[in-house]
Amino acid sequence: MKGMLLVALGRDADNAIYPIAWAVVQVENTNNWLWFVKKIKDDLGLLNGEGFIMVSDRQKGLIKAVQTELPEIEHRMCVRHIYTNLMGKHGKKGTDLKLHVWNLAWSYNEPQYYENLDRIFNYDSQLHEDVLKTNPKSWYRAFFKLGNYCEDVENNSTESWNNTILKARDKPYVPMLEMIARQSMVRIAKRSVITLDHRSLCTPYVIEYLEEELEKASACVVHRSTNNTFDARIGGCSYRVNLETRSCTCRRWDITGIPCEHAYGVILSKKLEVQDYVCHWFRTAMWRRTYSEGIIPLRGARFWPVGEEPRVHQAPEPPQPGRKKGEKDGKRGNNSKKRKKGINESPTKKKPKMLKRIMHCSQCGVANHNSRFHKKAQQAPQRDSSQVESSQAQE
Description:
The protein is extended. Among the domains are: 1-78 and 155-200; 204-277, no CATH class. The strands form four sheets. The chain has a four-stranded antiparallel beta sheet. A two-stranded antiparallel sheet has the order 1-2. The chain is α+β, with helices and mostly antiparallel strands. It has 14 helices and ten strands.
């Protein structure tokens, strides 16, 4: 019995993966995604999705399910998948296409966005047209909604989580789901201990984030204005910073919830504590709250309740065109449980084939014998010729 594993992951206050839900379906289609999204919506109380963010690839069934159940959610598309499609059409590895596409996705404001878009046009006008066809507002930071405090433009967390459950995926359905639940339970328990031991106001992710900005912030030239606003100048460009509304012209603070280098420079000039200006979602208190409760340990099958419903039987396998993943010549390979790599990803290195060495004699140079058997090799044809002559003489 085969199927597809659907998963929903979240981010905690330390920017780490938090498993939310997972389920097995027979095939990845609109109906199954609709069922999965509806379950998450009901369990988490998402209502129409307002104030929440979802990052996914451009799977058509998932897009339709989200539009139906969560019409107000901010549904972002993974840049990595978009880049892969553009790479297959416009470029090869080693080109500057990847740098141009990712810089565009990382643009925090519209002037920066249009500058990077102009660079793409100068690089390849056809690429520029195809980029505009991908619905830019779904994967450029410049168009993200404010107030959600999440800057993610890709869903690499699903690939990381997929690698942690390779052993579980090699098991039958029920043991697989039990093992995934057990791994998630242990993960949450370990992080709960880490949160209790952490003493700073903000999480380690924020502390490291601010340390990287300290050098630029120290070089910021600040001029005070009224209404708690400031002029922060870095690299010959001025930015308007407002400590009261916690915003900056660059919009990085507005999107991430963590002070940018311009706001950090203003905070340093006023001799204030920078962590006091970090969004509450990245505070240690919120981090601890996330891991205050975990997954309840699952009891063995003998303790499961037995209902009046008939036993579950194996469903017929749906038609799936093409060769099955990991299979070759009718046999399943060892890498069948691993993720199928994209077209532009680094392929698995193959071992070089060993060539058969042909032995040559050091005395006569003839192949298939050495000097040790040189005399025997010469005598063999002489004997054959003498036998032929004697047989002819007898005749």
